[in-house]
């Protein structure tokens, strides 16, 4: 497969050599049930184990997965829409988990709330891969709010596509998901527009949050809703923005605990997926 330079994959932190190695017990006996995933620096030095996986685990390298997705983007998206594409790479656990986001500003569409606030939302694709033995390779579609860069994973419109690392996993598994995302993104924008003109009180927000979060987290999110209302007005889009802010920001309000193991990117991704699961409930309240 040929390289596509516009995404700068080969020079990104997503790409590094990786291979599996046999495991042995402290006494030197072979372990037949598992193997280690070992990464190296780009020059082939500094080996370190980043995962222990089952014996049937199939390594799908970051380079193969993301390169296949990037070829699919080029094959299925209008050239004009790709102009100015922004690519962001995030890693956790020394590369055991890697995410690539593809943001397309040319898609930007205006969103106007009931208070007169205006912002633009853009299309993005989010792909990730892991070598930890417990996470799937996956691709989902979403939108991003260019006013404050809140990221939201699409809820009901687009199915998440994920695959375990088994012998049937191939790099081109996600081609169809790219096509689905491009074809149905407009429906998600329409959902946000419905939220932006549907009235909401703080009591409404409090009731919604209490159904989906702990008492402590609900209180934190309600405070964020108040902040969002100051800008976006008394509408459901303010609640939506508070949720996506929580899912995409390591902030004073929603800090990621420092464990010393470089977990921020994966933690934010996990939050974002949790927010995505409750979005259908929020959309159902829209006018």
Explain how this protein is built.
The chain has 287 residues and is an alpha+beta fold. The model is unreliable at 154-159 (pLDDT under 50). The longest helix is centred in the middle third of the chain and has 22 residues, at 175-196. The relative contact order is 0.13. 36% of the residues lie in helices and 26% in strands.
In brief:
By secondary structure, this protein is α+β, with helices and mostly antiparallel strands. 36% of the residues lie in helices and 26% in strands.
Total count of strands: 9
Mean pLDDT: 86
Structural class: alpha+beta
Low-confidence stretches: 154-159
Topology:
Layout: E1 18-24, E2 30-39, E3 48-54, H1 62-76, H2 79-82, E4 86-92, E5 97-112, E6 118-130, E7 137-145, E8 150-153, E9 161-163, H3 175-196, H4 202-212, H5 215-232, H6 236-248, H7 264-283
Helix pairs in contact: 1-3, 3-6, 4-5, 5-6, 6-7
Question: Which features does this protein show?
Answer:
287 residues; single chain; 9 strands; 3-stranded antiparallel sheet; alpha+beta; 7 helices
